């Protein structure tokens, strides 16, 4: 299977998960925003441990909270984490280069344990969370409003089609 086909299948899967959930648009959007928040700010591996209880506490979609964390996955963390560490370092006035951050993150991914992650030192760990906070501040509201608009538009379109179908049936019954 090529990449384009795989991406299209994933897009259709997530799109249908969003639209087929039987809940209010606000509930669905809140869950996705919670998932996105955790996906951007919480280190990979702890995201579900935080997002699912948060979705219960904040009354958001559990499906959205789970799938929303997938922004950071086995493929995207090779891009997102180094960029977020680089941005965080620059905001702190640090001098970490993108190449150095990428090299250190490769080491973390190679060992795949939190001891290696937190053994990176205060500067890189703080850079990770500051960069993650910036990503979170951008992505969480975008996700909430985007999902809210998507669900509302879909439901309005579905309702319009139902009304047109009912009107057509009514015309046939009168004839």
Quick gist of this model?
By secondary structure, the chain is mainly α. The chain has eight helices and no strands. It has one domain.
Overall geometry: elongated
Helix percentage: over 70%
The total number of structural domains is: 1
Uncertain spans, ≥5 residues at pLDDT below 50? none
From the helix content, strand content and strand pairing, which structural class follows? Answer: mainly alpha
By DSSP, the count of extended strands is 0
> How big is the Rg?
21 Å
Quaternary form: single chain
Distance between the termini: 52 Å
Count of runs of 4 or more consecutive helical residues:
8
* Main sheet characteristics: none
Strand content: under 5%
Overall pLDDT: 85
Order of helices and strands: HHHHHHHH
Q: What do you see in this structure?
A:
This protein has 175 residues and is mainly alpha-helical. It has one domain (27-174). It contains 8 helices and no strands. Helix 2 (25-41) packs parallel to helix 4. The longest helix is centred in the C-terminal third of the chain and has 53 residues, at 122-174. It starts with a helix and ends with a helix.
Task: Looking at this protein, list some descriptive labels.
175 residues, mainly alpha, 8 helices, 80% helix, 0% strand, elongated
């Amino acid at each position: 299977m090529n990449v384009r086909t795989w991406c299209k299948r994933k897009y259709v899967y997530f799109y249908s998960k969003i639209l087929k959930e039987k809940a209010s648009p606000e509930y669905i959007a809140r869950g996705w925003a919670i998932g996105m928040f955790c996906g951007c700010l919480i280190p990979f591996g702890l995201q579900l441990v935080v997002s699912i209880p948060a979705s219960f506490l904040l009354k958001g979609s559990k499906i959205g909270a789970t799938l929303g964390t997938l922004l950071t996955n086995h493929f995207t963390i090779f891009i997102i984490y180094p960029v977020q560490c680089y941005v965080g370092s620059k905001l702190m006035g640090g001098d970490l280069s993108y190449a150095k951050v990428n090299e250190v993150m490769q080491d973390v991914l190679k060992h795949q344990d939190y001891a290696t992650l937190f053994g990176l030192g205060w500067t890189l760990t703080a850079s990770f969370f500051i960069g993650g906070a910036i990503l979170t501040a951008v992505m969480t509201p975008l996700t909430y409003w985007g999902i809210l608009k998507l669900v509302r538009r879909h439901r309005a379109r579905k309702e319009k089609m139902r009304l047109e179908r009912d009107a057509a049936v009514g015309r046939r019954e009168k004839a």
